[in-house]
Amino acid sequence: GRVLYITRHGESMYNLENRIGGNPSLSNRGQQYAQKLGQYVNKNLKFDKVWTSELSRTLETSAHIKDIEKKRIMKPELNEIMSGIFDDLSYEEFKDQSPIEYKERELNKLTYRYPEGESYLDVCSRIEPVMSEMDTGENLLVICHQAVIRCILARLQRTPAIEIPYIKVPLHSLLKITYLNGQNTVEVIPLNV
Ligand code: F6P
Questions:
Q1: 83 lines ligand 1 (CB under 6 A)
Q2: What is the pTM of this model?
Q3: Which atom of ligand 1 is nearest to the CA of 83?
């Protein structure tokens, strides 16, 4: 059956600070993941295309893959959930500055739309135009972000919508998604750094 690979970007400076959104670079550990991912891919896999978002952290994560300049396609549809007026804040600062909004998001994480930003449902519709190309694509690696990967996995595995914002997507792991006998199964390949 069809095999698709997906990974989050390596750990970013904002992951370290527990910050939302923004356009941070990778941390040292994140850069080590980029190197390890490159080594693993160059040794074991053969991708014709590597999709990234437009954000630095996914581009940096792709950097060590052989011939990446020829293979890389940046897709704005894969950018992380837009956190609008709370972009760049830590979750702590978000909570302190706007406790009501914060609570609202906790209670309705699927439908909560950041002011001037997006909800999980918005992200799920935004990725829809690239979903069919992704789903049928061969030799494709997708490097993107936590919220976007949750929406992609939910779409591929028919996860109930209400569970989408809580799907666990580990850092520094490659997800191998195989479509066989009418269903997608996900294998987690940890590339520990
Ligand atoms: O890993 C950080 C991050 O990608 C943020 O940029 C983003 O806002 C967040 O994860 C999405 O996760 P959650 O919806 O659980 O806050």
A1: yes
A2: 0.97
A3: 8
